[in-house]
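In the previous lecture we treated proteins in isolation. Real proteins rarely work alone, and many bind small molecules. This record shows how such a complex is specified: first the sequence, then the SMILES for pyridoxal-5'-phosphate.
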Amino acid sequence: MDVQKLFADRIGGEQFGKVKQTFKFTLINNAKQDFIAKNPAVKVIDMGVGEPEETPDRSIMETLFEESQRKENRIYPCNGILEFQEAAARYLARDFGLTLDPKTEIMHCVGTKTALAQIPLAFVNPGDAVIATAPGYPVLPRVAEWLGARMISVPLESRHNFLPNMDDFEQLVKRERPKLVLLNYPNNPTGGVATQEFFAHMVELAHQYSFLIVQDAAYADFVFEGKFISPLHIEGGKEVTLELYSLSKSYNMQGYRLGFVAGGAALVKAFALIKDNTDNGQFIAIQKAGIHALDGCEKFLRDNKEKYGRRLKRVAEILNKAGIPARPSPGTFYLYVDVPKEFRGVQCATAQAMADLLISRYGLITVPWEEAGPCLRFSMTFEVGNKDFASEDEVFQALEGRLVHDRLS
Ligand SMILES: Cc1ncc(COP(=O)(O)O)c(C=O)c1O
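The predicted 3D structure, ligand included, written as tokens:
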């Protein structure tokens, strides 16, 4: 039998596996290995991948250890335990002043990535228009496209503070009548944060043109200017919004795979139906560790936020000194800059060209984004206290030495 005939069109059909694809992160990794081979004595500064570099708080790990030994926690958790939903509701109320009914308006998920893949199954029919901002996290757009959605992307640009231009956006929804609009604030990769006016307008449009807002709030805890704003803060927002919260970034629990979805009861119920049919829920011991994190790790969260805020400021200073205009992002742990036309005499027509230059010449890893003009993302999750860099200051010194003084040390 020719297995090539078995593959679905959405993954390339008979061509699956035959077409050579080069993924962005593979290119970055190849360039990194190349640099290490040529410069074995030089330490790589890794500001590439955006995932927390430290462990969760010890008390979270201890809770997991203890709870994993309880017999009653072994069972299929299915759509979760009410105690976790209650802890999520307490966190939303305490940190953001949001009121949600834990029984009907909150549902845990096995990480928000999984929820982003499940949500289209509940809302998208073939031919429906789905709007997503770009650059952005690609999971929901990809799955929606697999389901036959017409994907429309809306650019996020610095001149609009990385929010969609609302005049254009209103025309777009009037014309295309989307079923679902995916937003992500605080935004990966741009670091942009949303305002009250922005969400008020979005909620108004959602009611007027009947679309669902899916708001990915994976970075809700990292807002450095103003405060975190959600469509759920807006009157009438709950009825038209599903918002996703993650424990991955806030509590360094990315491997634990735990988050939750919050929004109108009917919307959460639809998500829960798909979830119930596609996963069996997160291990109850992990949900218990999550309850502990949400209820009892405020200091850990504050320290984490403080660390990223400090790093954003220092790295922005160094980039400015190096002639790369940068300002600390108002949210997330990413610094996002426009690629200069040339750097150190090298023309950088694309973000990929600039990223290649920074890796090959300075052993500095960043992530290029081309979707709304060439930009580079620097993640503040670089590791210190390891064999390469004993402290943050050592990283900053190395970064300054390389980018400002053109010295590889
Ligand atoms: C914007 C955004 N949404 C969702 C996720 C997925 O997070 P989780 O670990 O909750 O699946 C990420 C992870 O990088 C992200 O950047």
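Summary for your notes: Residues 28 and 365 are 7 Å apart (CA to CA). Residues 50, 111-113, 137, 184, 188, 216, 218, 246, 248, 254, 259 surround pyridoxal-5'-phosphate (CB under 6 Å).
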